[in-house]
Design a protein that fits this description.
By secondary structure, the chain is α/β, with parallel strands linked by helices. The chain has helices at residues 26-40, 56-64, 80-83, 88-99, 104-121, 129-139, 146-155, 162-176, 195-203, 216-230, 237-246, 251-265, 273-279, 288-296, 300-310, 329-354, 364-370, 372-375, 391-401, 406-424, 429-442; strands spanning 18-23, 46-49, 73-78, 181-188, 205-208, 234-235, 270-271, 286-287, 316-318, 321-323. Among the domains are: 213-279, Helicase, Ruva Protein, domain 3 (Orthogonal Bundle); 289-442, Up-down Bundle (Zinc Finger, Delta Prime, domain 3). The protein has a 5-stranded parallel beta sheet, with helices on both faces.
Length: 444
């Protein structure tokens, strides 16, 4: 995320004439723009914020004329509709599909998409409907849509000012430079390669909003609380976490499903975890490392639940790396689990020999300083260490092994071969593996 001290956000004097903050989720774009505005105004600059309904002429006047009250002015507004959140080809198809509904709402949607299309193609709205439609369809290689687009443009209500005027004002500002006015723009999911965006990238500054994976859960929870407060809906913390899991931690998918839930609840409503389960389709993948963590905690309920998800047909990953579950998945999974148990046995027995302890509360820096050097020592007579590879992987194996005895782990490792034979002889995979994991956790 963008923070106030980020080098991505300049002071007003060092700022280019146009700064665009863009990202895939409106909430985080707005949040980052607020941080940028705070940094730009710290020397006392005047800040003018315009909402989406502000007349184009008013915004242009603020951009091109000097302030009467301050030597520095920041003009903040959203240009998503100028750039469009879709490609021009998609906008054309969406305009025609909305038009064909034949309803007043469909027509309004068609007009909105058509204006965004003309803005993206930088074509004037006041030209001949026939010529404009012909030119747009030819450029987008969708000549079969000339006729319906012509119909839309014939009835398109005249818009005073509009995107063309704002586009021109921003280009003028880009050419003029920062002479006391800076445009702070926002855009959600803009298409790449649109003319104005390209010009801002060349002559201005584009700040891309991205969520640090380590902060993703906290950021998503913040989004949920803020949107619920705006809509006057009570959103339980458990509901936020349930929605985050079901949407696989994707901020974009979380935001989209959250809007549906808040609309379902209505002002004054209440969204609980049970409501999320009933109303949201489970889109989440399953991380095999989360299963290993549950095994390490000896949490049978969580481990067996995650095991079921690993064999539910959903996508499976190891961290960010996808895992193929198409061919021989049960036997390959058994081998992966056996390898993890082998690592746990190996690191635990080595630490016991050296009189060193690692438990669930040991931090990675402590492990690096006190344990990793021991593990890297070569073993006589081989001259190499059996603990090659990532120190962090061995740290996690040591943590997971902390709640087990070496005997329990060694016994489980020995049973892995029996489980493998059963799976190869067509034993029910989930039942067979569930029994194995249950015995491992129970120490049986």
């Amino acid at each position: 995320m963008v923070n106030r001290d980020s080098p991505a956000v300049p002071s007003f004097d060092a700022a280019p004439p146009v700064i665009l903050v863009k990202g895939n989720v409106e909430f985080f774009v707005e949040e980052a723009a607020g941080v940028a505005a705070e940094k730009l105004t710290e020397a006392g600059a005047e800040l003018l914020r315009f909402d989406e309904d502000a007349p184009a002429e008013t915004v242009c006047d603020a951009l091109l004329n000097r302030s009467l009250f301050s030597a520095q002015r920041i003009v903040q507004f959203d240009i998503t509709r100028l750039l469009g959140s879709e490609t021009p080809g998609q906008l054309l198809v969406q305009a025609v599909e909305a038009w064909e509904k034949g309803t007043p709402a469909g027509k309004r949607e068609a007009y909105r998409r058509a204006r965004a299309l003309l803005s993206a193609l930088e074509m004037p709205a006041g030209g001949s409907p026939e010529e404009t439609a012909e030119s747009a369809a030819r450029r987008l290689r969708k000549k079969d849509l000339v006729e319906p687009l012509t119909e839309i443009l014939r009835e398109l209500p005249e818009e005073r000012g509009g995107p063309a005027v704002l586009n021109e004002a921003l280009r003028l500002l880009l050419d003029r430079g920062n002479d006391g006015t800076v445009a702070l723009l926002t855009a959600t999911a803009p298409p790449q390669g649109v003319g104005l965006l390209v010009e801002i990238e060349k002559k201005g500054l584009v700040i891309e909003v991205a969520i640090d994976p380590r902060e993703e859960a906290a950021a998503i929870a913040r989004l949920g609380r803020a949107r619920a407060k705006e809509r006057e809906v009570t959103l339980d913390p458990d509901a936020i976490e349930r929605l985050r899991v079901l949407t696989d931690g994707s901020p974009e998918l979380f935001a989209a499903e959250l809007e549906k839930l808040l609309a379902w609840a209505g002002s004054g409503g209440h969204v609980r975890a049970a409501d999320v389960r009933e109303n949201v389709e489970d889109e989440s993948s399953e991380d095999i490392y989360a299963f290993y963590e549950a095994v390490g905690r000896r949490d049978a309920g969580d481990a067996l639940g995650r095991l079921e998800r690993l064999f539910s047909g959903r996508s499976v990953r190891a961290g960010e790396r996808p895992i193929d579950t198409e061919d021989y998945w049960p036997t390959r999974f058994c081998a992966m689990l056996a390898e993890e148990i082998r690592r746990m046995v190996l690191v635990k027995s080595r630490l016991e020999e050296a009189g060193r302890g690692v438990d669930a509360s040991t931090s990675y820096p402590t492990f690096q300083a006190r344990v990793a050097p021991l593990l890297s020592e070569p073993v006589i007579p081989f001259g190499v260490s059996p603990f090659a590879g990532s120190a962090y992987a061995w740290f996690k194996a040591a943590q997971r092994a902390a709640r087990y005895t070496t005997r329990e782990l060694a016994t489980a490792l020995g049973r892995a071969a029996e489980v493998d034979v059963k799976l190869r002889n067509s034993a029910p995979p989930l039942e067979t593996l569930s029994a194995y994991v249950g015995e491992l956790i129970a120490g049986a």
